[in-house]
Every structure is written in C-alpha cells, then in structure tokens.
Amino acid sequence: MTTPDDRPFEEWDRPRQRWLLSGDCRGLRQRTLLLEMVTRALFQTVLVFSLYLLLVGHYGPGGGFAAGLVAGLAFVLRYIAGGSDDAVRMRPPVLIGLGLAVALLTALAPMVVGAPVLATTKLAVDVPLIGHLETQTSLFLDVGVYLLIIGVVLDLLRSLGAGIERDLQAAEEQSR
Fold first, then answer.
1. Rounded Cα gap, residues 164 and 158, in angstroms
2. What is the mean pLDDT of the chain?
3. Residue 88: which region, alpha, beta or left (left: phi > 0; alpha: psi -120 to 50)?
4. Cα–Cα distance measured from residue 26 to residue 17, given in angstroms and rounded to the nearest whole number
5. Around Cβ 137, how many Cβ atoms within 10 Å?
6. Who contacts 51 (Cβ-Cβ below 8 Å, separation ≥6)?
7. Which tens digits make up the pLDDT trace of 77-93?
8. Is the pTM of this model over 0.85?
9. Which of 98, 110, 84, 95 is nearest to 21 (CA)?
10. Distance CA 44, CA 49 (A)
C-alpha cells in the first residue's frame, strides 16, 4: 500500500477509487476535484435524507415522490462527478418496472379483502430489540413510487448522457 508521500508529485491527487474517477474526460486537467470530494462527502447523506423523507411522508411533507426526486438528485450529482460508468449498477428499466409493480400491487391489494382501491390501514408490529413500530400500508405505495422515480431519473441520465459519451468517443478516436 502506498501513501501519498510515496507517489510522484504528478500523481498524488489522482483518485484511486473507481466510483469517483472522471470517466472518459478529455484530459486530466478537466477533472473537478472539488466536485468529486463534495460528491464523496454528500452522496450517502443525501440518500439517507431521501429515506427519511420517504418514511416521514405520511406525517409531514415528503413521501415517495419527493424522496425519489432527492435520491435522483444524488445520482445526478454522482453522474456529473464520476461519469456514466459508475452511477448505478442496476439497470433503470428494472427499477422502473419494480417500482411500478410494487405501487400497483399495493394499490390493488385492498380489493382482496373487499376494501376500495388505495384503501390504507395502520400496521403495528413488535420488533425484537427495536420495540413497537407503527406505520401505514400506504408506505408500500410510496416505496413503489420512490423506486419508480429513481428509475426514471437514472434512465434520463442514461439517455441524455449517451450523447456526451458519443462525443467523448468521437473525440478520442479523432485524437488517435
């Protein structure tokens, strides 16, 4: 393992972790080190905040849509800082389909017991080591919307970023 002091001066600030590399940038001088460091510090925090918005949405402002948009913004930040290779490992259409399926099944589930569509009820569970937890069944609908919105944002990043990737490949082929 090398320390920053063991590497030559020209290489001491190059990132060693794959998820924050600038991707296919045209030159090392075009890297934005400040953006990479801010992304490294904020990405997980923004995702935790989006989960907070998801869970508190029934008792205050928030819910699946707002939480999905906040999580989507975290992935946009990561995409801008690290390129398209590392934004997310799961394919966006899978997230869209999964979110849509969860939301649809949750919306139609009350019909099984004779209740109207989108009816909600309170769930109370005693969890060992945590204690008594209460939530609404509409939380599952919000989870579906959350996954759906994240999938749509990632699909937009993939679609809009394809032109950038194409331009970078063309510039790289021209330089050869």
1. 10
2. 81
3. beta
4. 19
5. 15
6. 67
7. 888 887 665 556 778 89
8. no
9. 84
10. 9
CB neighbour burial string for 90-115, b if at least 16 within 10 angstroms, e if fewer: eebeebbebbeebbeebbebbeeeee
The rounded distance, in Å, linking the Cα atoms of 57 and 88 is 25
Residue 45 contacts residue 38 (beta carbons within 8 Å): no
Nearest CA to 147 out of 94, 89, 77, 88 is that of 94
Which residues does 125 contact at the CB level (< 8 Å), separation at least 6?
Answer: 132, 133, 134
Beta strands in the chain (DSSP E): 122-127, 131-136
- Are the C-beta atoms of residues 79 and 120 closer than 8 Å to each other? no
Asked whether the beta carbons of 155 and 68 are under 8 A apart, the reply is no
Residue 172 and residue 166: Cα distance in Å, rounded?
10
pLDDT digit string, tens, across residues 85-137: 555 677 889 999 999 999 999 999 999 999 999 898 898 999 999 999 888 88
Cβ atoms of 122 and 135 within 8 Å: the answer is yes
Give residue 164's identity as a one-letter amino acid code: I
Q: How far apart are CA 101 and CA 144, in angstroms?
A: 7
**Residues found in the chain:** 176
Residue 7 DSSP label: S
